[in-house]
Every structure is written in C-alpha cells, then in structure tokens.
Amino acid sequence: MYVAVKGGERAIENAHRLLANARRGNQSVPEVTLDQISEQLGLAVDRVMSEGSLYDRELAALAIKQARGDLIEAIFLVRAFRATLPRFGASEPVDTGAMRVQRRVSSTFKDIPGGQILGPTFDYTHRLLDPSLAEGFVPEAPATAEASTAATPRVTDILGRDGLIESSPQAEDGAGVGDLTREPLNFPADRDLRLQNLARGDEGFLLAMGYSTQRGYGRNHPFAGEIRFGEVEVEFLAEEVGFAVPLGSIELTECQMVNQFKGSATEAPCFTRGYGLAFGQSERKTMSMALVDRALRARELGEEALAPAQDEEFVLSHSDNVQATGFVEHLKLPHYVDFQSELGLLRKLRQEFAEANAEPMKEAAE
Questions:
Q1: Which of 48, 162, 243, 258 could form a disulfide with 223 if both were Cys (CB 3.0 to 4.6 A apart)?
Q2: What are the recorded GO MF terms, alphabetically (predicted)?
Q3: Do both 75 and 112 map to the same domain?
C-alpha cells in the first residue's frame, strides 16, 4: 500500500485543517450524525462493511462521515482499524438455510417453498426523482403480517435433490481454510481464497467482470437461482463448555446462480453453480460475485480459460479497491527525480535523432 510519508510539516498540518473544514461544510447546516448515516444510507454502510471486512455499522458510518462520503476511502479506514483488533478465533460457518428472511426472490421458479418475498428493493420503482424527499418526507407505515414459520429451503438444494445441479463443492476433510487478511494471495488459488477475495473486492470491478461473462467472455449463461437477504445467527465454539454459543445476529445477502450445464462420457449433464455472499443488503455485489466465481471455476471444471473473467491472476490481483487506490494515488506523490532522469534521457535521444538526420541532409547539399 502506498501512502504519503514525507512532506512539509506545516503544509501537511494546514492541509489537515482545511480537510476538516471541507468535511464539515457550511456550519449553518446541521451536522450529519452517525445514526442518520447508518439508518438512511444503509446500503453505503453495507458496502463499507463488506469490502472493509468488518461487520460494525457504527464504525462503517463513522468511516463514511470521515471520508466525506468517499466509500473507497471509508473502506480503507475500516481495514486499517480492523488491522489493530485482536483475534480470538473463528466463528462457526453460518447457516443461511436458517436465515430469518427479509427478502427472497428466484428467477428460476415462480412458486418456491416458503414463497417469493419481495422485501425492500429498487427493482419495482420507476427511477424518477422524488421531490418530496427534499422536504423531510415521512413515509407511510409498511404493510405488516405475522412472520411465516414455513421453511425456506434453498432453490439449489431443491435442484440438488433431483441431481439436476452439481453438488456444492466441498473442501477436503481436514483441509484448513485460507485467510487473506493474514497471508498474501498466491496462485493458483483455491475457491476459499477466491471467494474471500471477491467478497472484499470492489463492487464496480466485479460488476464489470460479471457483465463481461454475460456478453460471452466467460462461458456463463446464468439464472438467478435465488437471492436472499436477512439475519443469520453467528456462533463461536467455546472450548471451555465444548459446544458453540451464539454471539448475535448479522445481516447477509446470499446469491446462488444456476449456470450452464456440463457433462461428460461418464457424468450426466447437470447445471453448475456460482456463489456470492456479502454483509448487509448487497444484491448487486453478490450477483456479480457469483458470476465471477463461476467464471473462475473454469480450471476445476475442465474448461478453457480464454476470457479475462476466467483469469484468476488478473481478476484477483486487480479487484481490491484499497490496493488499487494506493497504487494509482501514489502517482500524486513527488516523482521529481524519476521524471527529471527520464526528461534528460528524452532530450538526449532527441538530440541524437536530430544529429543523425542532419548528416544525410548535409551530404545531399554537398
């Protein structure tokens, strides 16, 4: 990561004071609070938590405020804070099948066990600016009903019972799970590391990569098997008592993509999978993640890797917006010596070029 480490002390101090004033803006306007950011800019908070790899709504809201709404800078702040925290262990895998669902849709089947639940979404809005929001708008109370106790099995599990989709890839018994927050990424990368990388990856980059697969660059013909958003319980194995204890609940979005089928001389054709999971309500992110996940599985599925989205080194090495930002923004730091050396070399080459072309002209004149 490239960061500024040198400079005039007084100039930097003045820049900090100027930034603080720019962040606050017109002081006659009420200052935005963390509760307002968390409650009214919830999707921005969800993105910062996901790509910052830290589930804490208050800290994510603080980072957004400190970063003046620059979400990548906020993600950087959250990651930097996360690096200071002690680590006590790893939680048990969450069971998204037991999710307390707030939204659940499938584009593969109209009728699914537990039903389609539209939930809070922009999908059915007209995308017209609403002037009433400029004036302290108070919305109508939403329609309510008793929570359903009906089971909401994953659509891919329904297909799996009939053998119509490949089994969910499983790690080998006893195999450890990689951790990108503690170890550098190496290639070839197994799916656990790829999914971690994609979960932390920039949403815009993954959206572009996922879109490319739909346009023919990655052998993807996807169907949204299911997208679900809701609360899941997080548990931690307490060695003192010998069983897992609940720590609390978090909100997650999960996307299961059903992709084009494959088969062989020994295996019947079946659908394949792509998977995405992120903190909060992050549907665009998880859908893009699932598309790219499927594209990156080309090697394990015996497919040719010809498209950018199938090149794991290209995708995984360029998806992290904190690393990418640092590498791009370091260009703002002084490069005087480097540039002067290249400038001197260019002038020398131009002089040699001019002299070489002057000789034939002199000979022609004689």
A1: 258
A2: lyase activity
A3: no
Distance CA 77, CA 90 (A): 23
pLDDT at 243: 85
38, 57, 84: which is the final residue of a domain? 84
Average pLDDT of span 291-313:
90
CB 222 within 8 A of CB 274: yes
Q: How confident is the model at residue 250 (pLDDT cuts 50, 70, 90)?
A: very high
Instruction: Give the integer Cα–Cα distance in Å for 197 and 275.
Output: 13
Domain count, the chain: 2
Q: What is the pLDDT of residues 9-34, one digit of tens each?
A: 888 888 888 888 888 888 889 999 99
Q: Is the pLDDT of residue 363 over 80?
A: no
- Give 296's contacts (C-beta < 8 A, 6+ positions apart): 191, 194, 309, 310, 312, 315
In this structure, are 101 and 19 located in the same domain? no
